[in-house]
Amino acid sequence: MTAAAESTLTLDRRFARELAELAVPWQAEEAPAPELLVFNEALAADLGLDPAYLRSPEGVRLLVGNHVPDGATPVAQAYAGHQFGGYSPLLGDGRALLLGEVTDRRGRIRDIHLKGSGRTPFARAGDGRAVVGPMLREYLVSEAMHALGIPTTRSLAVVATGRQVRREGMLPGAVLTRVAGSHLRVGSFQYARATENFGLLRRLADHAIARHYPDAAEAENPYLELFRSVVSAQASLVARWMLVGFVHGVMNTDNMTISGETIDYGPCAFMDAFNPGAVFSSIDVSGRYAYANQPVLAEWNLARLAEAMLPLIDEDQEKAVTPAVEALGAFRGQYSAAWSGGMRAKLGIADAAAGDEAASAVVDGAIAILKDGPVDYTLFFRNLGKAARGDVRPVRGMVLDLAAFDSWVAQWQALGPDQELMDSVNPAYIPRNHLVEEALAAATGGDLDLVNRLLEAVTEPFTERPGLERYAEGAPEDFGSYMTFCGT
User: Fold this and answer.
1) Among 45, 183, 278, 478, which residue has the least CB neighbours within 10 Å?
2) Is 215 tagged catalytic?
3) Is 466 exposed, middle or buried (0-12, 13-18, 19+ CB in 10 A)?
4) pLDDT in tens, 280-291
């Protein structure tokens, strides 16, 4: 597709059409001098979009919402949510717009969505804008998560707006173009339920089933099956977060998707040293969303979804409680199975039977070693792969209690760990916090070289390559405690 053939670019308005009560038509703020900073050419091609067109002046204006194809209707989405445990009946996209949907090359419907595109009716006290650093953070981390095989929203582009934005000082503004299976959230259902518009609630559930869980439509109770499907998807997702040491940082119900994709990379980070209490968000003062709390809070969020869906599960809501509680009760077992299976893969012993006591003891022993001292989580498992090949020195040099480690390694090696499996699931490269901050600081000053170099590493995380050695190393000793910010 060329610029001359731009009219062939079609953005569907399915969400706006089917769920008008959740969609406020709106226009993005005009960007005075839009400039493409990073662009995901491979993703554009997967979406069936022409990369050359999106790099053109008109294409860049589309990526900030200032050029809208014929027939498209950008909308701000309404939703509610529990934020750090407190319920807000109306949140919504305060600085975001859904441009519309496209059908990708595999026939999947995908949202094209903007973040930082200006104030909407849901903006409350915010300015609706975003700045370069946090938008590049989301680009880096979401693409790293995708490369790690973790369901996630994707990043198509970051465009500088040419406008300075006031935060702690004046910073360059930017818009992120985000791609997702959908932006339906637990908070979407909470909003529909709060309006007591049960026709809307039913249409929302039907929309979610058609978009994400079509098999649920054939179930005896499609809405109960939808809830079961979301529980299962979230159990798997959070287990995958835990296995790579990812801390989301803001697991509010408006940031939990119905699709099971990771969304909203605000105050997120990957652990360096293993720490169950790891918190990186400047606004999480109580540690509600600490690393070890994530499975518990996911289950709590799903309970809020169940509450919102009770009228769909049974017209007699008292009768709906029992099957909803039973469906929610599956979360812990599903999460535990996903985490245990993933941890056995990280240790190269995935073939061990689920009830194998020796394998379970090895998993427990690995966690005990990590808890015993400041051990870099990612590097520990990557170096353990070297131990599986016969070189135990790198990983042994990371631990404090050598006698306990030697005893554990003997038990582990007796199970015959699979080195190739370990290298395929234990990344060499993640978006390490000191590298992310270094890259974002340079990019805010106009130098994108470090961002591009870090992207090169984390988007192919399992293959070690010459020249990328520093991207596989742990944080320097002087890096100190780390805190991230939402950027609003």
Assistant:
1) 478
2) no
3) exposed
4) 998 898 999 999
